[in-house]
């Protein structure tokens, strides 16, 4: 088989198409599926059992644990599924993938989603030109979905095709009599072959050919399949490369589940294979280990061994059943044990892949409110209040990032990083507003006292204003981006005046967050302080505006620099207004005694 540099470059291009498809699909999901799909997944994965069943069913239908796990990674990346929910689905996917091995074992047939990619592409591309935004977003999702599976299909085309050329592995017959060493060699071979073929099903097919040709024993065939459980994790890992921290953690959870389970079975490999062989004998009447023993002893058995030393059709059927039984028993046992440690898995992947900052969480998550049944609406108000405080603290961090960006040169490596984090936080802020707002609306449908209904109205106003603060922080970043594109630089005096404004904004923000932390019993002094700060911010804005006109007239800096300077000052003044609106939401709906 000739493998050229063109084939290798084509392989890289296939991987790039796969990663691009993952990105487009994730963004399309986020735009079009958002709340509806999130709610569906929330119901389907509300506990470990339903999450596992979801993973089993999805994987059995699409016949690829790699594909279903890639979907889970994209759901987590789009904020549609939490890390803990994704673990249960991944556990189930590993059991669901055994359906493919049974199909190959029985029919040598595998359904490929990529066969339908062109058809879906013909539907998705025209949708991009429709006027309605929802159709455009769904078109993006379909295109990303097609690219993803087209990429997977092309990857399998441009790697050395081991399934059609199993003779490439015939030399391995020299390493079949090394005892434990042979098991380890073929275990590693299973990892490598599955990584190359991007499919545990392809590894199963190769193993079936090697066993039926008599090149390796049933025991070593099981070792290859066990290694394939680790090799199959490469696809979701590739998919997570273009995702956020939560997506990377999801892929790591998949790796951890497969690696730990495989290593445990490797430690008790011989007894485990004996168990699988006994189950196979109970189902088929023949022990596949006896077939291997007959091969090694070169026994003449017309029912099992052909004159050429290969297996008869009857023996091949038994070995195929045993090889299909092995991953089924392995994944079922792995699931039944590991499902009880889901929370531990989440903690482990968070420890392995920590956030870059102690106070930062890159993934979209709600801590205090969920999608379950709400039986006590008044108590749910308290949960929403706690979530609003977390929301405000997250937006407070955005203000800190915006201030840091003002003092960061565009050529510095940290500039792009801070800008990207701000952009990501702004997207998360939008989704948090929707989630909290929907939750409050559901609470309002329950039996509430008049005071409770007034609190709901206040909190809806508060989250809207907090989201406006988040938008304002990102607007600061976009203003700085335009400033840099026009090659404008602020001198030290201008930066000092900008800092004066944002010092006041920062004080106002800290006062607002402090007030939200005691929303039920707000201190009147903090409310008075908020009004005073807002007046100070307005006065400073007016003073700096007059000074800006004077500086431009006196040629201290040019007009363009003055424009960007005032854009930042005006954006800061708007932030002060939004913060005061939050305070007024607390004042009017929660009414401190001294101001009522």
Main traits of this protein?
about 600 residues, mainly alpha, 22 helices, elongated, disordered C terminus
Tell me what you see in this structure.
- The chain has 596 residues and is mainly α.
- The protein contains 22 helices and no strands.
- The protein has helices at 5-44, 48-62, 65-77, 83-96, 98-107, 117-127, 133-158, 180-197, 200-212, 218-231, 234-240, 245-267, 269-284, 288-296, 313-338, 342-352, 377-406, 413-444, 450-485, 492-517, 524-553, 559-590.
- Helix 9 runs antiparallel to helix 15 (313-338) and helix 17 runs antiparallel to helix 20.
- The termini are far apart.
- Mean pLDDT is 77; it is low at 107-111, 371-376 and 592-596.
In brief, what are we looking at here?
Helix content is 76%, strand content 0%. It is built from 22 helices and no strands.
As an assembly, this protein is: single chain
Radius of gyration, whole Å: 30 Å
Residues in β-strands, percent: under 5%
Number of helices: 22
- Amino-to-carboxy terminus distance: 85 Å
Summarize the helix and strand pattern as letters: HHHHHHHHHHHHHHHHHHHHHH
What percent of residues adopt helix (DSSP H or I)? over 70%
The shape, in one word, is elongated
Poorly predicted residue ranges: 107-111, 371-376, 592-596
What's the pLDDT, averaged over the residues?
77
Beta strand count: 0
Helix/strand structural class: mainly alpha
Could you give the topology of this structure?
Elements: H1 5-44, H2 48-62, H3 65-77, H4 83-96, H5 98-107, H6 117-127, H7 133-158, H8 180-197, H9 200-212, H10 218-231, H11 234-240, H12 245-267, H13 269-284, H14 288-296, H15 313-338, H16 342-352, H17 377-406, H18 413-444, H19 450-485, H20 492-517, H21 524-553, H22 559-590
Helix pairs in contact: 1-3, 1-7, 2-4, 3-4, 3-11, 3-12, 4-12, 4-15, 4-16, 5-9, 5-15, 6-7, 8-9, 8-10, 9-10, 9-15, 10-12, 10-15, 11-12, 12-15, 12-16, 13-15, 17-18, 17-19, 17-20, 18-19, 19-22, 20-21, 20-22, 21-22
């Amino acid at each position: 088989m000739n493998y050229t540099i063109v084939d290798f470059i084509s392989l890289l291009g296939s991987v790039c198409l796969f990663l691009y498809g993952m990105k487009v699909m994730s963004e399309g999901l986020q735009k079009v599926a958002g709340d509806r799909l999130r709610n569906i997944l929330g119901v389907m994965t509300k506990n470990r059992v339903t999450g596992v069943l979801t993973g089993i069913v999805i994987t059995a239908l699409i016949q690829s644990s790699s594909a279903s796990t890639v979907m889970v990674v994209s759901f987590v990346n789009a904020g549609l599924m939490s890390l803990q929910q994704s673990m249960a689905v991944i556990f189930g996917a590993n059991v669901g993938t055994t359906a493919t091995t049974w199909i190959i074992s029985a029919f040598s047939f595998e359904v490929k989603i990529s066969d339908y990619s062109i058809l879906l592409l013909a539907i998705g591309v025209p949708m991009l030109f429709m006027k309605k935004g929802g159709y455009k977003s769904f078109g993006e999702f379909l295109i990303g979905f097609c690219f993803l599976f087209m990429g997977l299909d092309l990857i399998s085309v441009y790697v050395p095709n081991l399934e059609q050329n199993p003779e490439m592995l015939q030399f391995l017959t020299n390493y079949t009599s090394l005892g434990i060493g042979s098991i380890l060699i073929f275990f590693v071979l299973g990892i490598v072959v599955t990584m190359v073929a991007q499919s545990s099903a392809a590894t199963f097919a190769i193993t079936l050919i090697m066993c039926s040709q008599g090149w390796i024993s049933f025991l070593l065939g099981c070792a290859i399949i066990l290694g394939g459980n680790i090799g199959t994790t490469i696809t979701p890992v590739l998919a997570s490369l273009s995702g956020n921290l939560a997506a990377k953690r999801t892929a790591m959870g998949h790796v951890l589940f497969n690696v730990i389970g495989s290593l445990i079975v490797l430690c008790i490999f011989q007894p485990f294979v004996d168990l699988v062989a006994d189950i196979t004998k109970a189902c088929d009447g023949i022990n596949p280990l006896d077939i291997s023993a007959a091969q090694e002893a070169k026994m003449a058995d017309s029912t099992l061994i052909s004159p050429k030393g290969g297996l008869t059709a009857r023996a091949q059927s038994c070995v195929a059943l045993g090889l299909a039984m092995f991953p089924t028993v392995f994944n079922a046992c792995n699931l039944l044990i590991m499902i009880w440690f889901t929370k531990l898995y989440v903690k482990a992947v968070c420890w392995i892949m920590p956030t870059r900052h102690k106070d930062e969480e890159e993934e979209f998550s709600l801590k205090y409110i969920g999608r379950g049944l709400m039986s006590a609406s008044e108590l749910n108000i308290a949960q929403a209040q706690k979530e609003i405080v977390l929301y405000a603290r997250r937006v407070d961090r955005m203000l800190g990032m915006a201030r840091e960006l003002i003092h960061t040169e565009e050529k510095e490596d940290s500039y792009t990083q801070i800008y990207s984090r701000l952009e990501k936080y702004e997207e998360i802020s939008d989704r948090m507003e929707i989630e909290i707002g929907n939750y409050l609306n559901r609470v309002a449908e329950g039996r509430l006292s008049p005071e409770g209904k007034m609190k709901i109205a206040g909190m809806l106003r508060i989250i809207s204003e907090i989201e406006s603060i988040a938008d304002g922080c990102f607007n600061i970043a976009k203003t700085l981006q335009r400033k840099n594109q026009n090659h404008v630089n602020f001198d030290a005096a201008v930066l000092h005046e900008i800092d004066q404004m944002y010092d006041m904004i920062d004080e106002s923000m800290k006062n607002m967050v402090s007030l939200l932390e005691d929303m039920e019993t707000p201190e009147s002094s903090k409310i008075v302080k908020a009004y005073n700060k807002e007046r100070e911010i307005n006065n400073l804005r007016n003073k700096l505006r007059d000074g800006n006109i004077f500086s431009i007239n006196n040629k201290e800096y040019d007009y363009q620099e003055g424009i960007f300077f005032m854009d930042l000052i005006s954006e800061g003044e708007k932030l002060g207004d939004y913060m005061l609106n939050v305070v007024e939401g607390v004042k009017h709906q929660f009414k401190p005694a001294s101001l009522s």
